[in-house]
């Protein structure tokens, strides 16, 4: 039984990616302190492992792990996209007006007027 649980967890790559992203979101929002990311990842992973074990033990007929993994991967991609947009906006705000990397026609027009 334990080996099958480990195999299920190992096949759920989406869970690890989702947990990693959730930890990073938690750090960005200040929910997870600097230096605690690794600990948070491990705790959440353990909770995920226990949840899968409980489902496997008590709901033996459940065999939809491939579908669960696909959903988790999709959620991870969506979170990744949202974080990409957010990071791009923050980078633009920080670099706007600097030579080359922060070039902006509107910034230059605003500052040309004085």
Explain what the structure shows.
The chain is mostly helical and 114 residues long. The chain has one domain (2-112). The chain contains five helices and no strands. Helix 1 (2-11) crosses helix 3 (37-58), helix 2 (13-28) runs antiparallel to helix 3 and helix 2 packs parallel to helix 4. The chain is elongated and about 70 Å long. The termini are far apart. The model has no long low-confidence stretch (mean pLDDT 80).
Give the helix/strand layout.
Layout: H1 2-11, H2 13-28, H3 37-58, H4 65-95, H5 105-112
Helix pairs in contact: 1-3, 2-3, 2-4
Outline:
The protein is mainly α. The protein is 76% helix and 0% strand.
DSSP summary, beta strand count: 0
Question: N-to-C terminal Cα separation, in Å?
Answer: 73 Å
Order of helices and strands: HHHHH
The major sheet is characterized as: none
- Summed over residues and divided by their number, the pLDDT gives a mean of 80
Structural class: mainly alpha
Q: How many separate structural domains?
A: 1
Number of helical elements: 5
Shape verdict: elongated
Which spans of ≥5 residues are poorly predicted at pLDDT below 50?
none
State the assembly state of the protein chains.
single chain
């Amino acid at each position: 039984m334990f080996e099958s649980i480990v195999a299920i967890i190992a096949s759920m790559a989406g869970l690890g990616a989702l947990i990693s992203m959730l930890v990073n979101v938690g750090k960005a929002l200040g929910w997870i302190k600097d230096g605690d990311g690794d600990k948070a990842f491990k705790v959440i992973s353990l909770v995920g492992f226990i949840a899968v074990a409980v489902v496997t033990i008590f709901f033996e007929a459940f065999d939809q792990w491939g579908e669960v993994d696909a959903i988790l991967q999709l959620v991870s991609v969506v979170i990744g996209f949202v974080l990409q947009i957010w990071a791009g906006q923050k980078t633009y705000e920080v670099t706007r007006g600097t030579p080359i990397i922060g070039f902006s026609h509107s910034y230059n027009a605003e500052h040309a007027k004085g």
